[in-house]
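To: structure subgroup
Subject: Chain for Friday's discussion

All,

I'm putting the inputs and outputs inline so they're searchable in the archive.
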Amino acid sequence: QVQLVESGGGLVQAGGSLRLSCVASGRTVSLYTMGWFRQAPGKEREFVGSIILSGGRTVYADSLKGRFTISRDNAKNTVYLQMNSLRPEDTAVYYCAAGDYVSFNYWGQGTQVTVSS
């Protein structure tokens, strides 16, 4: 089993930056990818981006428009989501996820990001 714990959420003003962290524990050797999703109240959960742990290749939702960056520290079993130029519409609960080649099997508890105007 794998456990994921997010941190770093909070309140930030529009235009600001925030970095989220996700620490994985358990059988992390089984993981192929880790990523981030977000969900605002009344909306569907949406894909933000992901990273391939072995080589660091990243994939992002087109809507990010270059504002978000995912990185990882494999030695620490940690992935990060650097969010820049934040907008009120970025307000959501952000979830860390991890999984194998075809799916995300594990999910964190989520961390709230609120962007004020």
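Points worth raising on Friday:
The chain is about 0% helix and 55% strand.
Residues 40 and 92 are 4 Å apart (CA to CA).

D.
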